[in-house]
Amino acid sequence: MQIYLIVFSSLYLALMVFFFVKYMLDTKNINNSNEFLFANSNMGVIFTFLGILATLFSTFTLQGMPSFFKNHGIGSWLFLGVTDVCLGGFLLYFGLKFRRFASSLSQNPKNIVELFKSTQSQKSVTFFYLFFTTIFIIPYITIQIKGAAFLFQAAIPIGETHLFWSCVMVLLMLLYSSTGGIRAIYTTDAIQGVLILITTWAIAFFVIKSAKGVENIFLEAREYSEALMSVPGPTGVLNWQFLLISFISICLMPYVQPQLATRVLVAKDDKTFIKATLFFALFVIFVILPTIFIGLRGVVYEGDFLVQILQNDVPSVFYALFVIGVVAAAMSTTDSQLMAIGTEWGSFLSEKSIKENKKAKLYVKVGATIVAIISLALAQTSFKSLILFSINSFIGTSLLLPLVYSLSIQSRWVKDVLLGVSLVSVGVFILSLMGVIPKIIFGLRVELILYGVIFLVLGLCLVGKKHKI
Amino acid sequence: MKNLSFRVPLVTLLTFLIALVVSYQVGADKSLILSIPTSLLFGVGCSVFLVVYYAFEFFIARKEL
Q1: ipTM value for the complex
Q2: How far apart are CA A138 and CA A379, in angstroms?
Q3: Residues 6 or more apart whose Cβ sits within 8 Å of residue A285
Q4: Among the listed ranges A323-327, A379-383, A457-461, which one has the minimum average pLDDT value?
Q5: In angstroms, rounded to a whole number, what is the distance separating the alpha carbons of residues A136 and A93?
C-alpha cells in the first residue's frame, strides 16, 4: 500500500508543482491584483461548479459522512444529501440576486469586505464581520488539517502523533494559497472534485462487493441497530431541530463565507453561474450517495472503521487513492479558505480597492500564514467530533447574514438594527457554546431561536423596503 | 437580466420540509427495493426531483437569461 501511496503522492505533487509554477509565472507578469485574487472574474462553468463543490466538500465528506451514516443512520442523507441540493436551489435565486447587487456597486466588488467598502460601511462594522468570520473559519481549517494528517499518520506513521503530517499539510496549503493565486486554487478544486468522485465510488463498489450486495449492507446495519434505519438515529442526534439548523446554516454559507461568496461573484456571467449551480446540485447526489454504503458497512468493524474498511475490503491501490483524495480535499478547501481570509484582511487594510493594490499578494500571504499557524496549533489538540465542530463554524458565520444583508439597505437606523441583531446573535451563540447560557430554551435549541429572530427581522426589512419605510 | 422565478426557493424549502416530515413519519419501514428504508429512498428521490425541477426552471427561463 505504501508503494502505491508514494507513487500517487508523487503524481499528485508533480501535478500541483506544475500548476503552481505555471500560475505563479503567469501572475508575476500582471501588475494589478485582479488576476491573482479574482481571475479577472472570468471563470467558466466547469471551474465555477467544481470550485464551489470542492470548497464545500472537504475531508468532512470523505471521512465525516461515512462516519455519520455509521453512527446516526440514514437520516444523514437528509442532513447533507438533501440540504446540499437545496443549497444549489437557493443559489439559483439568491446567488443571482447577490451577483446583481455586487455588480450594481461601484468597483464591482468580488469579495465581502469590498462590498462593505463599496457601500461606505463603517470600518468598525467591517472589522466585526471579519473578526468573527476568522474566528469561525479557523476551526474548519483545523479539522481539515487534522483529518488529512490523521489518515497519513495511519498509513505512514512518523513520530507518536500526527504533528509531522500536520506541518507538511499546512506548508503545502500555505504555499499554494499564497503564491499560486486563485487560478491555482481552482485547479486543485477541479482535481479534488474528480478525485472525490472516483475514490468514493470505487470504495463503495468494493464495499458492496465485500458485503455481497447492497441488501446485505442494510441487513447488517439493521441487525447492528434498528435505530440506524430511521430518523433521528441511535443517539437521537439527527432530530428535527438539528436537521433544520444545519439546513439553514449550510444554505446560508455562500452569502456569508468569503471563499464561497468570491466563487459566486467571479463566475464569468449569470448564465455561466446558473449552469454551474445546476451541475453542482447534480454532482452533490453523485458524491454523497456512495458514502451511505461505506458508512453503513462500517457497522461490522469495531474502532476506526474507515481504516479497517480500507485495509480489508478495498485493494491497496484504492486505499492509497483514498488517502490522496483526502489530502486533495483538505488542500482545496483549506487553501481557498486561507486565500479568502487573507484577501478579506488585505481588503480591510487597503485604503483603495484590493484589485488595485500592488501589495495585495503580501497581505494575502501574511493573513493566510497567521490563520494557518493558529489552525496548526489547534489541530494538535483533541476534539470530540469533527463534524459537530465544523457545524458550529457554519452556524457561527450564518448568524452574520443580517450584517451582510444590511449592505443593501439605505436607512442608517435599519442598518444599525441589523448590525445589532448579528452582534447579539453571535454573542448569544458563543455564550451558549461556552455553556454560560443554556443550549436549550423552552424546548428549542438556542440557534433555532436566533434564526427565528433573524428571519423575522429580515422579513420586516423586506416589507419595509417594499413600502419604502 | 431577470432572476429565475421565486418558485425555485419556495419549492426547495417545501421539498426539504416534506422530506423532513416524511423521514419521521415512515421511520424504519422497509421498501420492497433491496430492503432499503423507505424514508432513505424518499430522501434520495427528493434530491433527484429537485435537480430535475431546477433543470426545468432553467429550461423555461433560458431565453430571458
Answers
A1: 0.93
A2: 10
A3: A81, A85, B44, B47, B48, B51
A4: A379-383
A5: 26
Compute CA A349 distance to the chain's CA centroid, rounded to the nearest angstrom.
25
Question: Which chain B positions have a beta carbon within 8 Å of A227's beta carbon?
Answer: 28
Residues A22-41: tens digit of each pLDDT: 777 776 665 567 777 777 77
The pTM of this model reads 0.89
Percentage of the residues of chain A whose pLDDT score is greater than 90: 37
Grid cell at residue A413? 437606523
pLDDT of A78 above 90: yes
Q: State the smallest CA–CA distance between residue B31 and chain A in angstroms.
A: 11
All 3 cell numbers of residue A266? 467571479
The interaxial angle of helices A360-379 and A316-349, nearest 10 deg, is 130
- Cell output for A12: 499528485
Give the Cα separation of A255 and A259 in Å (integer).
10
Give chain A's contact residues with B (Cβ, < 8 Å): 74-75, 77-78, 81-83, 85-86, 88-90, 92-94, 96-97, 100, 213-215, 218-219, 222, 226-227, 229-231, 240, 243-244, 247, 270-271, 274-275, 277-278, 281-282, 284-285, 289, 292
In the predicted model, what is the mean pLDDT of residues B16-33? Answer: 80
- Closest by CA to A185, choosing from A284, A262, A77, is A262
Are the C-beta atoms of A352 and A188 separated by less than 8 Å? no
Check the CA dihedral A157-A163-A167-A173 and report its sign.
positive
Tens digit of each residue's pLDDT (9 = 90 or more) over A416-448: 999 999 999 999 998 998 889 999 999 999 999
What's the average model confidence in pLDDT over A41-47?
Answer: 84
User: pLDDT tens digits, residue range A367-398?
Assistant: 888 888 888 888 877 655 455 556 688 899 99
- Report the sign of the C-alpha dihedral through residues A389, A190, A400, A450, in that order: negative
CB contact under 8 A, B43 and A282: no
> Does position B1 have pLDDT exceeding 60, yes or no?
no
State the pLDDT at residue A154.
Answer: 77
| Average pLDDT, integer, range A178-196 | 80
CA distance readout (Å), A370 to A31, A228, A337, A360: 25, 42, 13, 16
Angstrom distance (rounded) from CA A448 to CA A454: 10
Q: Is there a cis peptide before residue A438, judged by omega within 30 degrees of 0?
A: no
Instruction: Estimate the crossing angle of helix A123-155 against helix A386-398, to 10 degrees.
Output: 170
CA distances for A72 relative to A132, A199, A234, A310, angstroms: 31, 23, 6, 21
Alpha carbons A241 and A75: distance in angstroms, whole number: 13
Provide the terminal-to-terminal Cα distance of chain A, rounded to the nearest Å.
67
Least confident of A269-278, A385-394, B41-50: A385-394
Contact indicator for A125, A112 with CB cutoff of 8 Å: no
Distance from CA of B29 to the nearest CA of A (A): 8
